[in-house]
Amino acid sequence: MGSYSRVVAVDNWILVSNTAGRNPETKAIPDDVSEQLLQVLANIDGALGSVGSGLADIVSARIFIQNPADTETVMTLFGRKMRGIDPTITVTCPPLGAAVCGVFLFVLVYRGAGSADVERIDTSAR
Hints:
By secondary structure, this protein is of the alpha+beta class. The chain has a single domain (7-114), classed as CATH 3.30.1330.40. It is built from two helices and five strands, in the order E-E-H-E-H-E-E. It has a five-stranded mixed beta sheet with strand order 1-2-5-3-4, covered by helices on one side. The longest helix has 17 residues, at 33-49. The protein is globular.
């Protein structure tokens, strides 16, 4: 219906459109929000693979959760999957376009970030 791209790569910057947990082969969306998030990450990883990148290159994520009660579940699983990558994140719980979708994810990626030397600074104690 709309004119959009799943993934846009400009030089080493890559943007991936808001991604739902719809299986691209079966078109099914799992009822369970954890299964949806796993499918979201698989969908994003596939899109990134098409432009020579992967989840390790994610530098920022926006997480949209349909039901605020699912926030802990989504963030716990996201934390397990993204630990060591540690992108900046924004989490919000707005009404989403389809009630069946429990979680959407938008990511900003820098190709090569996963293998770059990174200085980690803990600002939590300041």
